[in-house]
Amino acid sequence: MDEGAADEGAARVRLVPWHEGGLDLLRRANAPEMMLHLGGPESEERLQDRHLRYLRLGGTGGGRMFVVEEAASGGSAGTIGYWEREWRGGAVWETGWSTLPEFQGRGLATAAALAVAAVAAEEGTHRFIHAFPSVENPASNAICRKAGFTLLGVCDMEYPRGTPLRCHDWRLDLGPWGTGGTPLESHDGPGVG
């Protein structure tokens, strides 16, 4: 993957810091088919709590949430963010995303995953960012692979709390950004597709 192709992919999306309008996007993404691998739709109260957490997260140093906009249309395509978590004895960034059905299959989520990793790398806080998609979610696992994450194995988590979830542990080394490179120059898999 050459750097020009990476720039083209990143130019396909804009990451907009989470704002009041994000609540409507959370409601749209709360459909049964969108929440299939995340324990099912959430109540309105839980959505509002999530929205408030997302609003507060920015500026804390503990991560950020974004609305993903398709650059060409300006349409809200989904959500993405990163936050701190303890993992295997150390602190890492975790990332997660949701892409509305009408925007799926266009490479926007892969471009957003690369863009959010670049933002996390700029903070210089953690060397790695992990994603933990369900082993039964082929689309999110493909996004991880296309964005250059390395599959470390299978792990068991709870999401939502109390609900077992078997996940893949994908990790992206943010170090290349810190040295002026891009992660696309340092991984073996295909880049933005």
Description:
This protein has 193 residues and is α+β, with helices and mostly antiparallel strands. Helix 2 packs across helix 3. The longest helix is centred in the middle third of the chain and has 16 residues. The N and C termini lie close together (10 Å). The N terminus and C terminus are likely disordered.
Label this structure with key terms.
about 190 residues; alpha+beta; seven-stranded mixed sheet; 6 helices; about 30% helix; disordered N terminus; disordered C terminus
Indicate the radius of gyration in whole angstroms: 16 Å
Cα separation of the termini: 10 Å
Structural class: alpha+beta
**Inertia-based shape:** globular
Strand content: 25-35%
Total beta strands: 7
Largest sheet strand order: 1-2-3-4-5-7-6
Helix content: 25-40%
**Mean of residue pLDDT values:** 83
* Helix and strand run: HEHHEEEHEHEEH
Secondary structure elements and pairings:
Layout: H1 3-10, E1 13-17, H2 22-28, H3 44-57, E2 63-70, E3 76-87, E4 90-99, H4 108-123, E5 128-131, H5 138-146, E6 150-158, E7 164-173, H6 175-178
Parallel strand pairs: 4-5
Antiparallel strand pairs: 1-2, 2-3, 3-4, 5-7, 6-7
Helix pairs in contact: 2-3
